[in-house]
Amino acid sequence: MAMIPAQLPDRPDGRVLVIGAGKASARMAEAVESHWGPCEGLVITRYGYGRPCEGIEIVEAAHPVPDAAGLEATARMLGLLAELGEDDFVLALISGGASALLVQPAGAITLTEKQAVNAALLASGAPIDRMNTLRKHLSRVKGGQLAAAAYPARMLALMISDVPGDDPAFIGSGPTVGDASTAAEARAIIERWGIAAPQSVIEVLAGKTGVIPPGDPRLSRVENRVVAAPSQSLAAAAALAEAAGCAVQNLGDALEGEAREVAAVQARAALAARGAAPVLLLSGGELTVTRRGDGVGGPNAEFVLALALELDGAPGIHALACDTDGVDGAAEVAGAVIGPDTLARARAAGLDPAAALDRNDAHSFFAGLGNQVVTGPTLTNVNDFRAILVLPAD
To answer: Which terminus of the chain is less hemmed in, N or C, by CB atoms within 10 Å?
Structure first.
């Protein structure tokens, strides 16, 4: 987290409160205290992603489906913000995962109902920006509402992006950023992706929600700053590959879409890239999976499984796809790797790759081959990382 101290001003006079949420937020808080010393504050991160801090309290809660620990910690965070005045300063540390970790449902929505809606969203195949739009309108903290709760205190929000395009409004569902979307748009998302909505959700979306529009005076003392993004991980990988004598094709750091469909496109690109010299195809972004079966598989594992099927053992092509936070979907697995022999090895072991893809069971498939990538908590989160290495044909 070397980038955090470089982004910090001199420690302000008066009361300084550090808040945050996300899978990288505890590591960010640790970096803040290494520069400023012990601080007052409260940060919520995923179970297993905590870091030791001297003054800032680190609370671990559930992700991707929220739980009571996140609910209680968010309520305490709002209580701390309510105490602040115009001479106080808030440092907000936001990273991917904050949408599930900052939990304070709007209206009469219960935690159980919020959990059910969130789980349905994750299984729907909806793009991340649509998920976050709906989440904002069902919350008391997202869509600028956390920043509004701190007003009139001054706030600096440092963000690590895990969303295509690095729009601050969609990082962690934008708790410190105004949003122009409407409750009607949120209702349309429920209808478009067939999300089962309890009556409490319908009632919240029937009127004007608490989302703060851009230009609201309560956001006038907030500065939002993206300090790390997916493009940086691809640039670092490209530099290493080029130093090793490999040509690089960057397919984009903000790709979206169904994992298996993107895999088909990239398989064709890999086959077209074969030549006399090695080529590395890189891409990032956030792919989705529409759940059709009852298996265990996230978008990165599903991408490489679909890629293996599309390549059908083409010689000289190897690939890796991982989530940079170490968690692909809901599994404690970052992703998986494939090579030209993946399908042959699977069939020799009695594994059916096509059936595994049909069941959305890519993680079980790669576990059976020993080809999972397990990193444990990485304490950062700059979205998905995909690399396809195309070696020269013999």
So the answer is: C
